[in-house]
Amino acid sequence: AGALGVVVYRGGKMVGEGKITAGDLTSFATYTFLLGMGSSGMSKAAGEFRAKIVSVRRIMETIEGANKHEKQEAVSEKPPSDQMAHNGPLIVQNVNFSYDSRPEKDVLKGVNLTVEAGKVVALVGKNGAGKVRTKFC
């Protein structure tokens, strides 16, 4: 906005002096505005891209951790613990969660989830949406 103001001010003086036409000023001001909008959009896109890269890294770390865990299980000679030897579904019903620092604000509210035995579930969403909190509830 500041650059466009300078263009209009300085261009208005040049039109008054007869150095450029009003059409020239209008065209230049329009180009300046469009360039500013494009630059702003590029900055926003770059910020969003960086946020997506962080999310992709987290997903890859999770996948790599799961693959590492599967490989360890494949070579492990220990029998699975009684707690992990379930053949039925995992059922979570009406789970609520809030942080101690803000007990009035539910981070998770009324979460219901059923995961059939042997199935894998991925929780996806924006940063701060409660994915990690769901993991530890």
Automatic annotation (TrEMBL):
Record flagged with keyword Heme: no
UniProt keyword Ribosomal protein present: no
Region (Disordered): 64-87
InterPro entries from the UniProt entry: ABC1_TM_sf, P-loop_NTPase, Type_1_exporter
GO cellular component: mitochondrial inner membrane
Membrane topology of this protein: Multi-pass membrane protein
Annotated GO MF terms: ABC-type oligopeptide transporter activity; ATP binding
Ranges annotated as biased composition (Basic and acidic residues): 64-80
Primary location recorded for the protein, binned into one broad class: membrane
UniProt keyword list: Membrane, Transmembrane, Transmembrane helix
Localization, UniProt: Membrane
Highest taxon of source: Eukaryota
Biological processes per GO annotation: oligopeptide export from mitochondrion
PANTHER family listed in its UniProt record: ATP-BINDING CASSETTE SUB-FAMILY B MEMBER 10, MITOCHONDRIAL (PTHR43394:SF1), ATP-DEPENDENT PERMEASE MDL1, MITOCHONDRIAL (PTHR43394)
Protein name per Swiss-Prot or TrEMBL: ABC transmembrane type-1 domain-containing protein
